[in-house]
Amino acid sequence: MIDTRTAEWGAFALRVTLGVIMIAHACLKIFVFSVPGTVAFFSSVGFPGVLAYPVIAAELFGGIALVVGFKTRLAALGLVPVLLGATFVHLPNGWVFNAPNGGWEYPAFLTIGVIVQALLGSGALALDARRPMVNPALAQA
Description:
By secondary structure, the protein is mainly alpha-helical. The protein has one domain. The chain is 66% helix and 0% strand. It is built from six helices and no strands. The protein has helices spanning 7-32, 35-44, 52-68, 72-90, 105-120, 136-140. Helix 1 runs antiparallel to helix 3 (52-68). The chain is globular and about 45 Å long. This is DoxX family protein.
């Protein structure tokens, strides 16, 4: 049974956590690995290097959208291909993410997380939930 008193707060917690994780991964690619380094890594694992750019953008802007709750379902679903790609890159490394080159369970879990977020919707404190203010004078007319 779903507790309707707390469900929106659960969706909020998931949304913000996923968003922060996605922003952190984008920042890792930009500031630690560098964009050219990320392009080289993508090429080394068989992806076209140019794919690094839309992946970084998806992680950064998708993460921001999740944190603020803007177009939450769309942002979450937009991250599914990125996370599936990460899962398949880490698949040969085994189960545990602290294995050399990282395992596949962490990106797989994040993939399921964004799918769940898309199913749940924005939750509490989201821009999606804001309603335009209605002029009370017009509402009574």
